[in-house]
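RECORD TYPE: protein structure
NAME: Hypoxanthine phosphoribosyltransferase
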Amino acid sequence: MEVHPGQRNTPSPSRSSSPSLCSPQKSPSTTFLEQDCFCVKENNMADISGQSDRGSGGIVISDDWPGYSLDLFSYPAHYSGDLNSVIIPHGVIMDRTERLARNIMDDLWDHDIVVLCVLKGGYQFCADLVDRIKDLSHNSTQTIAMRVHFIRLKSYLNDKSTEDLHIVGAEDLSFLAGKNVLIVEAIVGTGKTMKTLLKHVESFKPKLIKVAGLLVKRVPCNSACLPDYVGFEIPNRFVVGYALDYNEYFRDLNHICVISETGKKKYMI
Ligand code: HPA
Ligand code: MG
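PREDICTED:
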């Protein structure tokens, strides 16, 4: 479980031990698991058999998934008209997070870890993931001692990624030397941000780095990184909620939703 500079730890059998920083994004197989209303497809057979989530790119939400009508859920009235649909309800996020916590526990239970929460978007996922790992540590011989540290990245203006990636509060991460680090990110888009962050973290010579990402966007970019633990693979659309923002709005929304054109205009800067 050691990581050497320039090499990510890759425990799952389906991941390559390529010396690159990131695993290339796998394209989903053609196996579909169409459920009554939550239209998902899984991208490997092992997931469908229910035996393992290892090496999975997460629950795949297909491009033609229209999402649930907002009328089926409750959400803050101040966002009325600003959203098109709910693509991942809060309860589903929580259930998937519980499973990711289980996978992390299985891999890292005898390690002390430093959780590196990537703000601002990652705060909710990180808090819930850490809570679930804590739950698993209680009344069990498997425990993970966790310290939590926060760094802040900023690269989006409106719904567009800017070239500038600012890492705020990451100046001195020298305390990571020799440590096991779990980076917790809400969303991985092009993967450029993740690559930059990984390079930065690796320069402080941690012993091991793992990445948990709640959402991975299907973007047509080969350089995309796949986190070690993925919640959902989603279409290449701008999503908000569960701490993901559009110009700082919508963090106070529990579900992951697609913003409407009205919403974009209303909060545009
Ligand atoms: N929503 C909010 N923040 C983001 C997104 C998104 O879809 N992609 C990258 N950062
Ligand atoms: Mg943002």
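COMMENT: The longest helix spans residues 90-108.
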